[in-house]
Design goal:
four-stranded antiparallel sheet, about 40% strand, globular, Ice-binding_C, PEP-CTERM protein-sorting domain-containing protein, transmembrane, membrane, transmembrane helix
């Protein structure tokens, strides 16, 4: 007899959180386009990504399970403009004047694109999962990246005004993003694992 669908999903989610896959648990980058760097990505603390290297463009989605605290951390910028990052769910923002490592967080439970946007000082926005003004875009710098002493599930870079969304270096404002399950989500997963164990023990007794 196969396990009930919800037990199977709960077990998979719990295993992801307890293994190396936990760094990605709850987040997924959806690639909508690709581009080639026309300038080098060269923020201190990162490996230089040269002119001509590829970058994936797209949006970062929340996939669950349950509720998780999503944290955005400012990792640096290399821009001639004054850019910003807004967590539109909480209203908090990150600025170029903030210290590297400054973080803002919010609890997320709804699946879909995370609620944030980048802004250039010309009033241009790149909204995650939504509209990008001409000359702006959101690029994927890397996954499971160790920056300093912290590993970030996803590192995203903003292209503020290079002419079109396909031109630039995506180092105009860089953030690291990670998600950690809320205590009640861990509790839900543990209950689910208990139900899986109970179900398996009943099957063995038959």
């Amino acid at each position: 007899m196969s396990k009930p669908f919800y037990l199977h999903n709960t077990m998979i989610a719990a295993m992801m959180l307890m293994t190396g896959g936990a760094a990605h648990a709850g987040l997924s980058f959806v690639v909508t386009d690709t581009a080639t760097r026309t300038e080098a990505f060269n923020i201190a603390g990162f490996a230089t990504l040269p002119t001509g290297s590829a970058v994936s463009l797209g949006h970062l989605d929340y996939t669950g399970p349950g509720a998780q605290t999503v944290t955005y951390t400012y990792l640096g910028q290399e821009s001639g403009f004054i850019d910003k990052f807004y967590n539109t769910l909480s209203g908090a923002k990150l600025l170029e004047s903030d210290a590297i490592g400054t973080s803002i967080s919010s609890v997320v439970s709804a699946a879909g694109p995370l609620s944030f946007k980048f802004e250039g000082d010309t009033g241009k926005f790149a909204i995650n999962g939504g509209h990008w003004n001409e000359g702006t875009s959101i690029g994927l710098i890397g996954t499971n990246m160790l920056i300093g002493s912290t590993t970030y599930a996803y590192v995203l870079g903003y292209n503020d005004s290079a002419g079109t969304k396909h031109l630039g270096d995506w180092d105009d404002f860089v953030v690291g993003v990670s998600a950690v399950p809320e205590p009640e989500t861990y509790a839900m997963l543990l209950v689910g694992l208990g139900l899986v164990g109970f179900s398996l023990s009943k099957q063995k007794k038959r």
